[in-house]
């Protein structure tokens, strides 16, 4: 548990979905829900806002190794904006849509985490399941990262929602699902449902010290692991993130 004596609450705001906290701990600023010691949702270094300090962001970025397209991407769940900001800053031709249900989180991300919407970064205050049904062009990557301290909302776990996600992908697109904060009893069910939805499915595990787990799903069969590793090296150079090359400790295909 985080030592609360080292924390400084910068901002505290009630919301329809619980209290939102902005907390400084030394050089790190983090977003937390329900309490100042709650699960860390997003973080950055105040001395180096462009650094990718949250390990799960690097593992989730590995999803880009499964698609060659870099045009349109969707993130469901804003948090402090670490993942969409990484896409926006390091892939200058990409357009990123972000869907966030909680308007207070959007306000906090703008005021305290450097999220600045523009023509390439759009934020929509909406429910992810409703937004995914919009009649818009398909996405090359969809990152599902909607969490509270109680885990993922139930309706975003359902097979029907994942079917809609799959339908919104380009033929070479990839869906990425963060399961790092799921309770152990929910993880296997999430993996099984995801694998039944996507013809190509794998669990990407971060290094043992991080414990991060990301699911990737594609509409086509997955590449073999050596091809994936080669693409990870290329991706690390493209994003100028050398640590990305070694961020995924294991690549585990899953059959539906």
From TrEMBL:
* An annotated GO BP: polyamine biosynthetic process
Tell me which family the UniProt entry assigns to this protein: Belongs to the spermidine/spermine synthase family.
**Record-linked InterPro entries:** PABS, SAM-dependent_MTases_sf
| Catalytic center residues | 145 (proton acceptor)
Q: Which PROSITE patterns match?
A: PABS_2
Which GO MF terms are attached to this record? Answer: transferase activity
Q: What is this protein called?
A: PABS domain-containing protein
Q: Tell me, what's a Pfam family for it?
A: Spermine_synth
Sorted UniProt keywords: Polyamine biosynthesis, Transferase
Q: Where is the PABS domain?
A: 1-223
């Amino acid at each position: 548990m985080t030592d609360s004596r080292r924390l400084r609450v910068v901002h505290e705001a009630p919301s329809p979905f619980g209290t939102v906290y902005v907390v400084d701990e030394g050089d790190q600023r983090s977003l937390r829900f329900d309490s100042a010691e709650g699960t860390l949702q997003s973080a950055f270094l105040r001395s180096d806002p462009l650094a990718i300090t949250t390990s799960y962001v690097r593992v989730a970025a590995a999803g880009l190794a499964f698609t060659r397209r870099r045009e349109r991407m969707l993130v469901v769940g804003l948090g402090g904006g670490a993942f969409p900001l990484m896409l926006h800053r390091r892939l200058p031709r990409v357009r990123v849509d972000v869907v966030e249900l909680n308007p207070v989180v959007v306000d906090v991300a703008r005021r305290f985490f450097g999220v600045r919407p523009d023509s390439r970064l759009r934020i929509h205050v909406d429910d992810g399941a409703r937004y995914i049904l919009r009649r818009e062009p398909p996405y090359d990557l969809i990152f599902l990262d909607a969490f509270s301290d109680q885990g993922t909302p139930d309706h975003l776990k359902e097979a029907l929602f994942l079917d809609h996600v799959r339908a919104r992908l380009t033929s070479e697109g990839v869906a990425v699902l963060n399961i790092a904060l799921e309770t152990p009893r929910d993880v296997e069910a999430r993996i099984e449902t995801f694998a039944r939805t996507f013809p190509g499915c794998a669990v990407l595990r971060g290094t043992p010290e991080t414990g991060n787990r990301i699911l990737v799903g594609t509409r086509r069969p997955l590449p073999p692991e050596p091809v994936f590793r080669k693409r990870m090296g290329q991706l690390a150079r493209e994003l100028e993130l050398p640590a990305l090359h070694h961020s995924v400790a294991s690549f585990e295909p899953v059959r539906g």
